[in-house]
Amino acid sequence: MSVQQPAEPIVFRSTFGIVLTVVMWAIAAAGIVASVLTGAGAVPVALLGALAWFVWLAYWRPCVVTDARGVVLRNLLSDVDIPFDAIEDVDTRYSLQVRADGRVWSAWGAPAPGGASAIRSGTRRPRAGDLESWRDTPRAVREAGSARAGDAVTTASGAPATVIRRELERRERHGIRRDETARVTVTRHPVLTAVSAVVLVLAAAAVLLGG
Q1: Which residues, 6 or more positions from 166, have their beta carbon under 8 angstroms from its beta carbon?
Q2: Which pLDDT does position 153 carry in this prediction?
Q3: Under a CB-based contact definition with an 8 Å cutoff, are residues 68 and 10 in contact?
Q4: Among 36-50, 138-152, 154-168, where is mean pLDDT lowest?
Q5: pLDDT tens digits, residue range 63-73?
Q6: Contacts 24+ apart (CB under 8 A), 46-53
Q7: What pLDDT, in 10s, does the model give residues 124-153?
Q8: Cβ(112)–Cβ(157) under 8 Å?
Q9: Which UniProt keywords apply (predicted)?
C-alpha cells in the first residue's frame, strides 16, 4: 500500500512574515492605546490601524497550504488552488513557483532566500556544511546538481517545494495516473480589496482633515 499525503492540511508561512506581523501589530496596538489615552487624535490611530492591516495582508495572510489533493497558494488578494494532477513542475528561483495549466503560479508567502543567497542561487550541489538543510529534500534535488538556495527545506520556498516534489515522486513511483481534467482554480477576494481601499481612504482622510 502506498503512503498517502497527510489528510490534514500543512500550512507553510514565512517565519520572517510571522515575526514581522507580530512585532508590527504589537507596536500598532501600543501606539493606538497611547494615542487614545493621550488624546493624540485620529491621525495616529488611523495610520497605525492601516499599518496593522497592510502588514497582515502582505506578511501574514500569504502562505502555502498542501493536503492530499493538492496545493493552495494564498496570495494577497487571491487564492490559487492547484491539484497535484495539474502540476507540471516546481521551481524556487525567486519564490515557490508552480507550473500548471501552461503557466507559472507564484507564491507571495514563500519567497526564496534573498541577499547573498539569491546571488548564489544559480544551480549548485548542496555543500557538506549545508547537509542538514538538504537532508529531507527529494533525491532528484540532492543528487542531480539542480539545487538552488531556495530548495533547502529550511527556507520558506524550499519547505513546501519539498512536500510537493515528494508527492509528485510518490505518484510517479506508484504509477498513479493523472486526472487530465484537473485544472487550476483562482479565487479572488473582493472583500479584501474593498477593505484595503476603505482603510486607505480613512487613513488619507484622517491625515488631510487632521492636518
Answers
A1: 138
A2: 86
A3: no
A4: 138-152
A5: 999 999 999 99
A6: 46/202, 46/203, 46/205, 46/206, 46/207, 47/203, 47/206, 47/207, 49/199, 49/202, 49/203, 50/199, 50/200, 50/202, 50/203, 51/24, 52/24, 52/25, 52/28, 53/195, 53/196, 53/199
A7: 444 544 555 556 666 666 555 556 778 888
A8: yes
A9: Membrane, Transmembrane, Transmembrane helix
